[in-house]
Amino acid sequence: MALGMPIAISIAVSSMSTLLLVIPFDVAVFSSAQKMVGSINSFSLVAIPFFVFSGIIMNNGGIAQKLVDFAMLFAGRIPGALAITNVIGNALFGSISSSAIAASTAIGGVLVPQQVKEGYDKEYAAAVNIASAPTGMVIPPSTAFIMYSLIAGGASISSLFLGGYVVGVLWSAAIIILAVFLAKKRNYPVIARDTSKSVGKILMDSVPSLFLIFIIIGGIMTGLFTAIEASAVSVVYALFLALFYYKTVTWKDLPRMVVQTVEMSGTIMFLLATSSMMSFAMAFTGIPQAISSGILGLTDNPYLILFMINLVLLVVGMFMDVAPAILIFTPIFLPIVTQIGIDPVHYGLFSIMNLCVGSITPPVGTGLYVGASVANVKVEKMFKPMIPFYIVILLVLFAITYFPQLIMWLPNMAG
Hints:
- The protein is built from 19 helices and no strands.
- The protein is globular.
- It has one domain.
- It is an all-alpha fold and about 425 residues long.
């Protein structure tokens, strides 16, 4: 990776090098190929290209402004209303597009200049946008949960999805509370809603796209379809909206979107395949057991163990994207947390949130740089304004880590 090699190739090369130290070349190659093919020969992975495709369709559907108008209905005349709208918009758009960068650019690109125009500090507007951009990554449909489920050996995708909704709401609520507090403290102006757009028109434009989220959670909770089947339903519904309701996508656009889907899905699948090779190499050489013994040798206190794991994942998230971090560190840390009695679904929820936080944390967090670019602010000027937002996000992270009932009640209720 330090040489600029793609992460999947880096994983494959390092895994093969490790295996060649302990087993013959022909056995290493045959076993690795078998593991790679077997890892992606899973019905659960059908959900990935479907969710990617639905996200691309909705992302090309021009729904950013519709979601902004919808969020303003709820923000109303609350201090910091535009900031609240930014948070809600990022959560909704991020969940639909499955991209924090897309949310930060699309929603922040509309609202950050608007906040500055209305008298908000540019750094404040940028900080709200950056801090809330990754919320959509933990709100289903999320490919991160599907990848984790596969690596974790079958942790329920439906439970991860339902828990993800709760995590996303808690994260968004924390940012909103802080944004309102700062807006009141700094006497930012209260913005009246644009009356040129009727409530009925706003709802007609925005609710159908938001209904995608409710179709997924409603279908899973009622047992109408599984999380995997929900991915296909999401594509059909997204196509209906884009082609016939909003009419923002034409039939001629579909081949280009299919190609984008294949490229993104292929990248994810190759990452999954090479990560299974790495998991095999680590298991064969006993690396997870050695790390587990090392950590448990330092302490058997579950609170300290969870603290150390969170600390490591926060640092990892600063330098590595969420997907490869899940693939690399889940086989290492999952055996440790299960040994101290942590539910694999609970671990998946707080570890993925943790890695998402890393994406907006210096020195390498891409979300931080994109958010600063959207606001036309130098990155170094964002460190201080981001501190209070980092604090509240970390409070949420540690709350869901040490009080699992905060996020597990919905998955448990659904069974």
